[in-house]
Design brief:
Blueprint: H1 3-23, H2 25-32, H3 38-64, H4 69-92, H5 100-119
């Protein structure tokens, strides 16, 4: 595995999350045990656009980063680490009635963060 492939894999996984937030927001709310209202749907879809944008950046990075690929790899590792920390904080604060979907995304993000940190090490 290399960083280019990892960026593509990240783009697909994150893209699926983003698109599901845009088009299948009811699934997100049902899994989390949260009532879907107009404002929460708008917020979820806005989040989905931002996440899908991050997926697109990850996909394009694989082809265009060149020598800076290690820097981008660490950047994606930090993004996933931040998501893990925020999700764990939200679970500890009891912000969601059903934290199981959060745990699934935490595990996926932990794996991706570890892989990005590992593969973005400087090799000389």
């Amino acid at each position: 595995m290399n960083l280019q492939l990892l960026c593509k894999i990240n783009g697909v996984i994150v893209g699926i999350n983003g698109l599901s937030a845009i088009f299948m927001y009811n699934m997100w709310f049902n899994m989390a045990g949260i009532e879907a209202t107009g404002p929460t749907i708008a917020l979820c879809q806005s989040l989905g656009v931002a996440v899908a944008g991050t997926a697109l950046i990850s996909w394009i990075t694989a082809s265009n980063a060149g020598e800076a690929i290690n820097t981008y790899g660490r950047c994606f590792a930090y993004i996933h680490s931040g998501f893990v920390l925020l999700s764990l904080y939200q679970i500890m604060q009891d912000y969601v009635p059903n934290p199981q979907p959060f745990y699934i995304n935490v595990v996926i993000s932990l794996i991706l963060a570890a892989a990005f940190f590992y593969y973005s090490r400087k090799t000389e």
